[in-house]
Amino acid sequence: MRIPRLVSIIVLLLWGGIAIAQTSYGIGSTPTEEEMLTMDIDISPTGEGLPEGRGNAKEGAQLYMTKGCIVCHGVTLKEGPAPRLLKMDKGPDADPWEFGKILPIRSPYAPTVWDYINRAMPLGAEGTLTANEVYSLVAFLLYKNEVIEEDEIMNAQSLPKVKMPNRENWAPLPDYKPGMDRLEGYPY
Amino acid sequence: MALKRSDRRRFLKSSAVLAGGLAAGAARTVSAQTSDAIVYIKGTDEIVAYGKRSRFETAVRESHGRPHSPDTFGLIKHVSTPIQESVGVITPSALHYIGTTRGHYIPDIYPEAHKLMIHGMVDHPLTFSLQDLKRFPSVTRLHFIECAANRPSVEAKSIQESHGMTSCAEWTGVLLSTLLKEAGVKGGASWVIAEGNEEVKGTSSIPMEKAMEDCLVCYGMNGEAVRPEQGYPVRLLVPGFEGIFNVKWLRRIEAVDKYYMTYNDYGHLRQSETDAALGYLVGPKSVITYPCSNMTLPDKGHYEISGLAWSGNGAITRVEVSTDGGRRWQDAEFRGTPQRMAHTRFAIPWRWDGSESMLMSRCTDELGKVQPSRAQVAKFFGVPLDPSYRVPGRDNSIQTWRVASDGSVHNAYS
Lengths: 188, 414
Description:
The structure holds two protein chains of two kinds.
Chain A: H1 2-22, H2 33-39, E1 54-55, H3 57-66, H4 69-73, H5 103-106, H6 110-120, H7 131-144, E2 154-155
Antiparallel strand pairs in A: 1-2
Chain B: H1 5-22, H2 45-49, E1 62-63, E2 78-80, E3 98-99, E4 115-120, E5 126-129, H3 130-135, E6 139-146, H4 159-163, E7 166-175, H5 176-183, E8 191-196, E9 203-207, H6 208-213, E10 216-221, E11 224-225, E12 235-237, E13 250-256, H7 263-266, H8 273-278, E14 285-290, E15 301-310, E16 316-322, E17 330-331, E18 333-335, E19 344-352, E20 357-365, H9 374-381, E21 400-403, E22 409-411
Parallel strand pairs in B: 4-13
Antiparallel strand pairs in B: 1-2, 2-3, 4-5, 6-7, 7-10, 8-9, 8-13, 10-11, 10-12, 14-15, 15-19, 16-17, 16-20, 18-19, 20-21, 21-22
């Protein structure tokens, strides 16, 4: 039968064409699930990637001392020499941006605070905190900045639900398009 | 520079070696052997294996004051290039500016063990060794990288302080788009996260549109391997974007469906959309590197004013120079062919008549965007222009050098 054969040839040709288009260079290897889990440490602002574990501010207050945070960030979280962790006292009606560039109050999403501490603290021993310890320290900092209560438990479910004061109060980056204006009307 | 004792001994020794070597050669006059004669450097194994510059060349990088470096922990975060000594457009690798997420240590990465993983919203997660990356089609491009701290400033004591946080190198690697296509990006993936292998695992979010456009995963820099302080063995280049996006010691690229606001992104958080937009792409920018502050013109007469221009929007198409504070502008010539998102050398002849002069340069890029004056930016924001005025976002405003009648050159904003 002629037509089906022609069709099958066309199909084969198309299939071959697609196969070529899709053919990869065949370079690289597939990471194992375990490799991916070990490497994939980022947490999305809405909490994707948060591991199991839990902590509260009281436990965090202990860890703040035992993990040495207190040495650099101070007893009251504001005397340094490392960056201040306590919001500036600007009164009840202050815009949260007036509190200063202080991670646990400025970030619009609490999981961002988790990600930051998990990857970058403590100085000289980065990446050594357990999930429970990070949850506790985040809870402690959020409590000290009057975002949550002292006994609130932070975990993968509760942390993304924390209402940060800047949640609706930040500017997203513009959608990047090649050749776009930096800013409409700006004199460059 | 007077010869030190040890140098003199070395000179005498090397002269003796040369005398032996030349004995059968051309006649060498006695007068050439005086103490004013050229000193010869003995070809040590070190010089043979990996050369170094003349000991009379003293231009060096220095720790940069903004953000304050070294910081309270003695950590050096930012290091500026001696741009006042630059010639051509390539910054030597040993002088390329350095920005780090914390500056604690430079990872000393064993290249055979280094892996780059591409995963997230892709069809096939993949891991590449350095050898794998070198098997892909390569590209070699000239690109600048500039730090957000780089800006004209009232306080700047030197051009190295105000403009030394930009550098340009020839980068070789594989297009990030090649690797992403190899992994197969899924629909809905709008950003990538790029993560480094330093102590804080510094991470930046990059729009997928940019990742697929022209980002480079680099293993080569100025004809050799990327330097450790630049991300050895593999770093990301995000041409035209602020320095911090150019993740070093690259270990992971993840395709995601939203802006992740992760480690390096946090510093970019802004309240107003205007500020957020201006902290992203590098606008057209130029600076005169010769003459510049802290130099002194020895005499009246002919000079070649020379400088660098660059833009995150593409190639530089025009550079104008003024010697009278912006009243009259003249087109400068390019030295070499302007490349996209790369330093471009410009030059213009100038006869200095000995009177006070205000030297300025301004550039235009391939989108027709013109480098602004500080007055233009202040006007845009509707604020008064005083010496302490700080341009929001990436400051690409014009730098003015004041040449005093005694030939000394100064930062006109101080």
